[in-house]
Design a protein that fits this description.
Low-confidence stretches: 1-20
Shape: globular
Radius of gyration: 21 Å
Largest sheet: none
CATH architecture of one domain: Orthogonal Bundle
CATH class of one domain: Mainly Alpha
Order of helices and strands: HHHHHHHHHHHH
Distance between the termini: 45 Å
Structural class: mainly alpha
Helix content: over 70%
Number of strands: 0
Mean pLDDT: 80
CATH topology of one domain: Tetracycline Repressor, domain 2
């Protein structure tokens, strides 16, 4: 970004964007509140009962809304679960973009990206419970729009580093799939342990991806 452009942006009136935004009407606010109520209820029910045992009726009962209201937004528990996964990815993607910007090398980016994901799992207790109770469902919901977009961003970051000569000209799609798969599998194992350690998980995953299993630290009896 040039200095002139930065000055132009800084000269923009502070309230310009806020003033141009239309206030949300009562109907739109009600829709937003209902959708949020459904997703919040679903988080609790999926975490408590597990994906397989949960029914739409369980979710509706938790919201306090009429069944007709629920079906105005979602057709099934599968759609609700997909919406929850998309919501999680929407929260992670800006953090991954920030990791990309602040990382000076490809290895630093991969390490920071793993750490961001593992920190997210460790800090969000409800996500912890959902993932722990619903491992099979998580594996079948990887094709939701937000998830696909997030994975595509990671592939693009890899291709940028290939073009810049920071990474050998490997298959970017396969490498992206390997990074995502390792993150999810190690994340699952990490949250099942008594002591959750995002840093150790990120170090392990980064070493495995970039240097292979021969470079991994040897596990002692104490687990270190």
């Amino acid at each position: 970004m040039t200095e002139v452009k930065e000055k132009e942006l800084s000269a923009e009136p502070a309230g310009a964007f806020a003033a141009s935004a239309k206030p949300m009407g009562k109907r739109e606010q009600t829709k937003l509140n209902n959708r949020e109520a459904i997703l919040n209820a679903a988080r609790e029910v999926f975490a408590e009962l597990g994906y397989g045992a949960t029914t739409v009726r369980d979710i509706i009962r938790k919201t306090g809304l009429a069944s007709g209201t629920f079906y105005n937004y979602y057709k099934s528990k599968e759609e609700v679960f997909e919406a929850l996964m998309d919501d999680g990815m929407r929260r992670i993607r800006p953090r991954l973009k920030a990791d990309r910007i602040r990382s000076r090398t490809f290895e630093e980016f991969i390490r920071n990206a793993f750490r961001t994901y593992f920190d997210y799992l460790a800090s969000d207790r409800m996500t912890f419970q959902i993932i722990r109770r619903n491992p099979t469902a998580l594996r079948v919901r990887m094709d939701s729009p937000e998830m696909v977009a997030g994975f595509e961003e990671i592939r693009q970051y890899i291709e940028e580093d290939i073009r810049d000569g920071n990474v050998p000209p490997v298959d970017s799609e396969y490498l992206m799939a390997a990074v995502v798969g390792i993150a999810m599998e190690i994340g699952d194992r990490m949250i099942m342990r008594g002591e959750i350690d995002p840093k150790t998980a990120a170090d392990f995953a980064t070493t495995l991806v970039l240097h292979g299993f021969h470079a991994l630290p040897v596990k002692t009896e104490a687990g270190s």
